[in-house]
User: Fold these one by one.
Assistant:
Number 1:
Amino acid sequence: MHRILSTGLCGGVLWALTGAGAAQEIGSVDTAFQWLGPNHKIVIEAFDDPKIAGVTCYVSRSRSGGVKGGLGLAEDTSDASIACRQVGPIAIKEKFKDGEEVFTERRSLLFKKMRVARFLDQPRNTLVYLVYSDKLIEGSPKNSLSAVPMMPWAGTPPKTTP
C-alpha cells in the first residue's frame, strides 16, 4: 500500500511540475548525450488555445537531461520557439484580455516558468501569441512570437464574438 501511495504521489507531483495534460508531446531530438539519466533534448509540444477554437500552437523548448533532469530537478534554459496556426474554423468561445496566459509550464522545481500569452490585434483581425520565460528574481528577455490571421475556413467566416 505504501509503495502504491508513493508512486501515485510522485506521479502527481511530476504531473503538476511539468504541466502534463495541457500539451501533447509531438516529438523530440537529442542534443547532448548524458552518461547517467536521459539525454538533453529539444521537445516539440502542441496545445490548443482553450478560448479560441481552430487555433493550435506548437512550442519547441529545451529539456535538461542527466540525473537532475531525469528527476525533474534541473532548471531548463529560457530558450523556446512558438508557431501557432489556424487548424479549423476560428471561433472565440469566451472573452479574453490582451496578455492573458494561454499555457504555462514549469522550467525549474520552484521559481521559473515558460508562459504563452495571447493578444488580439483588432485592426488586422489577427491573434498574436508570445512565448517567454519568467523567474521569481529575474526573468529573461528571450521570447518568440507567432501571429494567426483570423481567416475564413472552407467558406465559413470567423466568429469573433462569443
Number 2:
Amino acid sequence: MGKPLTDDKGRPVVVVTGFGVITSLGRGKHENWKAVTSGRSGLHHITRFPTDGLRTTVAGTVDFMELEAYSAPALSTAMASEAAYEALAQSELGESASFPGPLFLATPPTELEWPQRKALFASPDGEAPEEGYRQLLKAARSGRFTEVFAEFQFASVAETLAQEFGTQGLPVSLSTACASGATAIMLGVEAIRRGDTDAALCVATDGSVHAEALIRFSLLSALSTHNEPPHEASRPFAKDRGGFVMAEGAGAFVLESYEAAKARGATILGVVRGCGERADEFHRTRTHPEGKPIIGAIRAALADAGVEPGEIDYINAHGTGTQENDKMEYLSLKAVLGEGVKSTPISSNKSMIGHTLTAAGAIEAAFSLMSIHDGTLPPTINYELPDPDIPLDVVPNRSRQAKVTNVLSNSFGFGGQNASLVISGEPV
C-alpha cells in the first residue's frame, strides 16, 4: 500500500466528490451554471408579500419549491434537502438515509413571522385576546401549535436533514452571518483533517426573504433601491452601486479524505485546499476601517493552502454591491496580492443571484469549483461604470474563458465574521 496523500502540513487532503445548488435561477448546479455564465439574472419583483411603501421591492426569492405552507424554516429545509440530494447523488456515497459522516449546516436564525404570530395571538374562544407575553404563554399551553413551535427552533432544520440523510452523530447548526456557508465547509474540512471522520456533509441554506427581514436591512440603508428594472438592482464594484439585494438559495458539499474517496473509486471533483477565518469586534455591521480581519482571513486561507498570492488565478468575490463592502474587499485584496490584484480576474455572482446571505459562501464555492472545471469565469453584470477607486480586473457583463487552477472565494458577514476558501482542481 502506498503512502497516504497528505498536504505539506502532513494533514489528509480534503476533496469534493459531490455538490448541489439551488438559487432563484433554478434547480441544480448545471441549470444555475448555464444561467450564471450567460449573465442571466434571477432577481425579480417580490410577490410573496405586499411591498407597497417599501423602498426596495426586488429580491432573488426562490418561488418554485413545493411547500404546504410558506415559512422561512420550511423553505430553508426544502432547499437544503434538494441541494443535499444532488450532492449525494453525484458522490454516490452512502446508502439511502445512511450517510457515513456528520452534518454541518449553516442556517439562518429562525423566528416566528407575522402569519404565525397572528395565528398564535388569535383568540380561539372569541374573547378579546390578552396582551403580549401572557397571550403567547396561553397559546403555548393550549397544545395547538406544537408543529409551529418545533419548526421555529434554531436546530429544527438540521435535525430534519440529519434524520432524512442518516448522518452520524449530532448535527451541527451554525450561523456566522454571511460567512456561514464557508464556515460550514471549514468545519467539514477540519473534522476530516483531524481524523474524526472520512466524510462530511456540509450544507448552507437560507429562505428568509420576508417582510420583516427586508425592512430591517432597509433601515440599515444596506439594500439597493434600484427597482426598475429588477435585473439591474445589484451592481458590485460599479461606481453607481447602491446596496445589496436579498436572495435565497442553498448549496451542499460532500467532502471526503482523498484516501477514502480513491479507495471507493469516487470521482474527485476538486480540493478544498485552504481555509481562513477571522473575527472582527469593530462594529455590529461595519468592518474594521483598515480591513485587518478580512486581510487576516485571506492570508490565513492562502497559508493554510500553501499557495502564494500569485498562484491565485481567479477570485470569487464577496462583492455585495454596497459602497463600503466593495471598497474594503478591494483594499484587503490589494494588501495581500499587491499589484497583482489588478491583473487577477474577479467577479461577483451576487450581481445575478443576489446575496443569498447564510447560503452565499457554499453557493459561491460551488460556482468557484465549476469555474475550474469549465474554464469559464462568470461575469459581474451591470458593470457599466467602473469605480476608479477600485481598480480591479472585474470580469464585466460577459463570461471569460481562462485556465483556472486555484480560486479564492471570499465571504464576509455582519458581526465581523470573515471567511475565505482556496479551492483547487487537483490534489497537491
Number 3:
Amino acid sequence: MQAELVAFREEVRSFCREALPQDIRRKVAENLALERADHQRWQKILHGRGWMGGHWPLAHGGKAWKPLQRWLFEQTLAEEGAPWLIPMGVAYVGPVIYSFGSEAQKRRFLPPILSADHFWAQGYSEPNAGSDLAGLKTRAERHGDHYVVNGQKTWTTYAQWADWIFCLARTEAGDRPQDGVSFLLIDMTSPGVTVRPIATMDGKHHVNEVFFDNVRVPAENLVGEEGKAWRYAKFLLVQERLIAAETGRIRHLLAGLRAVAASVQEAGRPLGQTPSFAARIADIAIDLAALEAVCARLLAHADGDAPGGVEVNMLKIRSSELQQRVTEEMIRALGRLGIPFDPAHLDPGATPPADWPRGATGMASEFMYLRAATIYGGSNEIQRGIIAKQGLGL
C-alpha cells in the first residue's frame, strides 16, 4: 500500500480515538440502541474535520478521495468502534444529486447533507418490489407544477428520523418495467406521508413502512429527466453494494468475539483456546483477510467513484456471509452461559447482570439483525443471478 494511504489510515485512527465521544463509543461497543442525536453528533464531528463527504468532488464540498482511500476511511472508522456512517444522504442521494440534479438542487440539498442537518431515507423497496425493484407500484401523477404521489414503501431504514426521502415512483407506462420511473425528493413533513415502524426480532427500531396518500411534491424536486430514473437508480445501487463490503465492521465484530471467547470457560480453559473454536475463528480471520485484499486490489484500480461489474456483487455476497458467521460464533460462545435475550438491556441506561460478558445482549441483538444481511441491499440470490448472467453469460 502506498505510504500516503498508510499515513492517512493512521491519521483517521488517531482522530477517531481522540474525537469519538466516549458515550457513543460505549453504545457501539456494546451494540446498544443509538439515537439520531448520537449519529448526528458524530457526523458533525467528521464534518468539522472535512471528512463527512470525503469521496465527494471538491466542487461540492468533498476531498475527491479515490475509492481505495474512501474504503480505508470507512473501514478504519468501523474498526475503531465508530457508529455506522448512515449512507442514505452522504453515500446515496448526495452523489445522485451532484451527478444528475439541477444546480438549484445542488445548492439546496448538498450542504445540509454534509453538515448532517438533514437526514434522508431511501424509498426503493415496496411490498411486492424488493429484489425485483422494477415491479414498483408507487405512482406520481403530474398536475401542473407538482406531482401527486400515492403508494407504499417498506423496509425503509431510519425513516422515523428522516427529514427527506428519495423515492422511485412510476410516472408513466413503458415498454419495459424499468421504463417510466422517476426519481423524486420528498419532504417527510408533507401532508399525506405516514411512517409506521416494523418490529424486528433484534429488539431495535431500524425499519419502517412509509405510506404516500395524495402527497404533493413540487416538480422542481424531480431529479434528472422524468421517466429516466432507472439510470440513476442503478448508479445508486453500485454505491450501495460497494460499501456493503463492510470489512471494518467484520473486523470490529471479530475483536468482540475474541474478547468473549477469552472470558468464557470451556473444560477449564478459555473457549478461544479450544481447538475447534480456535479453528473456526481462524477460518473467519483468513476469509476476512482475503476479502480485504480483494477490496484493496479492486478499488486500487477503480476509475471514478466506484468500480462497476459483477465484482461489486461478489463483495456484497462474501461480506454478508462473513458477518453472519461471526455473529453465529458469538451466539455459540454466549450459549455456554445460558444468557437470555432481553431487549430491555439494549437501553443505554440498563444494567445487565454483572457476571455477563460486556455487551452480551448487544451481541445477541446483532446476531438477529444480521440474519437480514444476505437480504438487504439486494438479496444474495439476486446477486448470484446477476453474476451468472452478466459475469458468466449463463
Number 4:
Amino acid sequence: MPVIGIIGGQSHETASCLLEILESAGVAREFSVIDLEQSAQTIPVDILTAAGESQIAGRVIDLRENHFFIMNPDQKDILTLAANSRGLLITYGFNNKVCVTASSVMENEIQICVQRDLPTLSGGSVEQQEFGVSADTERRGAENWLAAITAALVAGIQVMVLNKVY
C-alpha cells in the first residue's frame, strides 16, 4: 500500500483535501495518508508532501527515503532543506515555474494547470493539462488543494471533479 506523508503547518488541511480526492476517485482504501506533524510513525513514505512551515521538516526530509518530494518553492524554510531530499522534487504553487499551479481560484472551484509532465509512482506519467475541480477553497485554502492534488496526481490518481455542494 503506497504511503503519502504530509508535513507542515497545513498538514491536517492538506490531508483532509487528499482524503476527499481519494474517496471521490474510489481509491481511499488503496493508500495510507499520514499527517506526520501529528504522528510519531517512522515508516518510510512513497510521497512526502510539504504543506507550510514544519517543525519536523529537517528530520523527516533528511531521514526518509522518499520516492517523491512535493513542495511549494515559496516555502523558504523547506526550500533550503530540499537539497537533502532523496526523492524526485515536484513543485506546486502560484507561479509559472512550478509543475502544478492554479490558473484561477474561485470560492468553490479551482482550475488546475499541470505545466510539465509528471512522473507517477507506478512509472507512468501525467501529461500537461488543465482541468477544473469543485473544491471548498474558502474553508480549506487553495494552496492546500494544490498540494493535495499534486500528491494525488503523482500517486497516479485520476483527479475527478468533486461534485459536492458546499
